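Q: Protein A?
A:
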Amino acid sequence: MPNSHENKQPETSAPASWGPPYLLYLGNAADELSIKTARGLAYWRPQWCIGQLRGAECVPELKLPYLSCVDAKAAGANTMVLGVANAGGRLSPDIVRDVVTALEAGLNVASGLHQRLSAHPEIVAAAARTGRELFEARQFQHEIPVGKGSRRAGLRLLTVGTDCSIGKMYTSLAIEREMLKRGIAANFRATGQTGILIAGGGVPIDAVVADFISGGAEWVSPARDDGGWDVIEGQGSLFHPSYAGVSLGLLHGSQPDALVLCHEPGRPHMRGLPEFSLPELKTCLETNLQASRLTSPDVVAVGVALNTSKLDNEAAQRACAEIEDLMGLPCQDPVRMGLDRIVDQALACCGN
């Protein structure tokens, strides 16, 4: 596994044992947000993905061939990636059955769910029987110290959000891509299961014991003296009752020089919590800035990244223009528009 603790670009190949080519498992996912792991891999590493496995009740799909485990193995697949993200990260009986089928077809299996593959004796037995490997993206092997808050060299940008599952990983990867395109040293620092599978390393921050979250952020974005940037993938939202804790720990441990706020216009409520509405953008951004100042007194906001996937082009452009007027910051969609003006703002504010 590439060591994301080093100041280098993320590797473009995964470890030989459980790595690509991938069969992306969608199971019986009910909506687009439920396949964010599969969709992220298909978008950022299309050269690794040769097919999708969908259940009979699966609603979303990818632009990939439909393949069974046997057909995927015959087509050259090495690993089936559980591309689903369900509430609680549980392995349902259907998923357990399909993992065993994949192992018996000769595929390794990689998972980013909270519940371990190794928690199911039938999966462990199938892996031992077939000689296949199980990879748990949320099983972290390194020892993490408690966060210290001490200043460290280097430039760091953290993505924050009005909600979870709103585009922080896409925004972070798009910023890294734009910086690298300009010849600026930059590293995407993954903190979630999908990002870890894309980058080949990182820290699964929501699987870290609470006292060590800020230390995990310090570990994944070490001091650097090359004038480059660490672009740290944010998690959750300070305004989400379920996930505010991990968001706060990342703010303190990242010690960001710059924040980018991620938002989806028109989202009716916090994901999974219909009784909680999304915060106002100005309130959300100022709250994140205030929390960041504990360990990074000079932090600045450099842009707003919008997820406009549910809008047509005209509406997307209009939404960005309205938010620019409201916030006084560049606003772009990382997929539709790229983030060149947000990167311009980061470089102008923080220097490079």
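Q: Protein B?
A:
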Amino acid sequence: MVWRKREEESELNQDIISMIGRCNIPILVLDERWHELFPEYKKTQKIKELEKNLNRLIKYQGKINDDKKEMKKLKHRLMEEIISNMGESTGEAGLLKQKKQEKSQRLIKEINVKLAQSEDEENLLPYKIKKANEELLIESLKIWYQELDSNREEIKALTEWIADAREKLKVNILKKQDMEMENNSIYSYMHSLLGAGVMQALDEDLDR
């Protein structure tokens, strides 16, 4: 058994946790079989919290990817604007171009900072998702092992009940056969003693 009791709480052996960390575990909240084993009514509060946290990280990962795409599009558009506004211009038009250039360059710098921050977060997210997924798996294992133990006890009790019922069934089948044979012998002897007419009258009287 990989579980041990400590202060009334089941904990997974640390060696097993290390082994789990080296496994290529699918994302549980995206796995149909996990959801089959954990319908809503079977989820504990802890399972719900860990599931919610994992879903939040996955959703955030998608948001970062979408945000990065949008920022890169905006950066590309600003760079095109800078190129289109290049060239010598004088007077008010030249001043307007210069302001646009400065604004575009400032925005590009801001985008570059945000992209760098997004990439840092994006690099950390797979680790966070893996850790959150492992936490959900460990909590799931705890519940599964409790169910396995409970089911084993019930299976053992049912196996004993079935074996006992089979034995009683065999006894009752033999008893039924003996009683049927005895009834046949009694009826046959009564028929030979009294004849068909009297037996029919007796049968009709008993059936009333």
